[in-house]
């Protein structure tokens, strides 16, 4: 999985591409979010638009990122989960845990000033 | 097309999970499953394999996971994933959707398996370990197409 980071109005957007699965994507996700938290970034938006699917390990890592950010006073939100990824969030009821947005500008605005 | 059986014996290393996923997906597509249904089967096979490697064998590469895939045109695909681990009782696994469990890092594999195939069975093997059996029926359209081909 590929991951790149950009900043919009103090919100750190992680553009993910590929699949979040055991041993690969989950590790990439963990490292990217950990790097951001260590740099003191507290507003993190994971762009899932180009993530094709996740497995239980990938879903577990999403949850771990959410908890890690919360422990440091930060927030992780989700942008544009695609078909299978959205199905998985619904199935696991994590759509009730994560704030999820379809439009990037709305997601960025939701973090507030 | 006649029935095909594929058997794999893999070390308990997570890098082999993709191999099982790929074979399951490819077999389903060869049999005429739509892309989405083939991915569902592959995801269930992936979860059963992860379960065997991570929970059954604690990632000990010396311990082997056996995967047996049987593809029967017109009927569907049956996948068995066998481990040598201590086994578990699926009925006692906590529901990861329950409010108090939603923030757990693990425990979603069984839920995913059950969501993605038509039938999941957990059996204790006589020789020790667990056998997870996944059954994915031929979806309606693909099954109808096979019937037409026969006629």
What this model shows, in words?
The complex is a heterodimer of chains A (113) and B (151). Helices cover 41% and strands 32% of the residues of chain A. Chain A has 113 residues and is α/β, with parallel strands linked by helices. In chain A, strands 1-2-3-4-5 form a five-stranded mixed sheet. In chain B, a hairpin with a 3-residue loop joins strand 2 and strand 3. Chain B is globular, with a radius of gyration of 16 Å. The two termini of chain B are 14 Å apart. The model of chain B has no long low-confidence stretch (mean pLDDT 91). The interface between A and B is medium-sized, with 22 and 24 residues.
What sort of overall outline of chain B do the alpha carbons produce when their principal axes are compared? globular
Quaternary structure annotation: heterodimer
Number of strands of chain A: 5
Largest sheet of chain B: 5 strands, antiparallel
Overall body shape of chain A: globular
Features:
heterodimer, A: five-stranded mixed beta sheet, 41% helix, B: 151 residues, five-stranded antiparallel beta sheet, 37% helix, globular
Topology:
The complex is a heterodimer of chains A (113) and B (151).
Chain A: E1 2-8, E2 11-20, H1 25-38, E3 43-54, H2 56-71, E4 75-79, H3 83-91, E5 100-101, H4 104-110
Parallel strand pairs in A: 2-3, 3-4, 4-5
Antiparallel strand pairs in A: 1-2
Helix pairs in contact in A: 1-2
Chain B: E1 4-11, H1 17-31, H2 35-56, E2 64-72, E3 76-82, H3 109-116, E4 119-124, E5 130-137, H4 140-150
Antiparallel strand pairs in B: 1-2, 2-3, 3-5, 4-5
């Amino acid at each position: 999985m590929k991951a790149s980071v950009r900043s919009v109005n103090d919100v750190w957007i992680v553009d993910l591409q590929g699949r979040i699965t055991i041993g690969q994507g989950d590790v990439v996700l963990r490292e990217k979010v950990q790097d951001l938290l260590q740099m003191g970034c507290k507003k993190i938006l994971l762009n899932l638009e180009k993530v094709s699917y996740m497995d239980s390990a990938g879903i577990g890592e999403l949850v771990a990122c959410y908890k890690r950010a919360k422990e440091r006073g930060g927030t992780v939100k989700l942008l544009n989960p695609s078909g299978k990824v959205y199905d998985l969030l619904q199935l696991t009821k994590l759509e009730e845990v994560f704030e999820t947005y379809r439009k990037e500008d709305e997601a960025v605005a939701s973090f507030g000033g | 097309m006649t029935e095909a059986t594929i058997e794999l014996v893999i070390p308990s290393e997570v890098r082999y999970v993709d191999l099982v996923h790929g074979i399951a997906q490819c077999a389903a597509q060869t049999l005429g499953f739509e892309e989405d249904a083939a991915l569902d089967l592959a995801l269930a096979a992936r979860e059963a394999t992860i379960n065997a490697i991570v929970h059954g064998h604690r990632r000990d590469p010396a311990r082997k996971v056996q995967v047996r895939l049987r593809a029967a045109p017109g009927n569907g695909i049956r996948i068995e994933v066998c481990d040598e681990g201590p086994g578990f009782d699926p009925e006692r696994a906590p529901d990861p959707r329950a409010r108090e469990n939603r923030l757990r890092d693990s425990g979603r594999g069984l839920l995913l398996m059950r969501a993605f195939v038509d039938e999941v069975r957990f059996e204790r093997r006589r020789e020790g370990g667990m056998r997870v059996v996944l059954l994915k029926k031929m979806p309606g359209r693909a099954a109808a197409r096979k019937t037409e081909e026969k006629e």
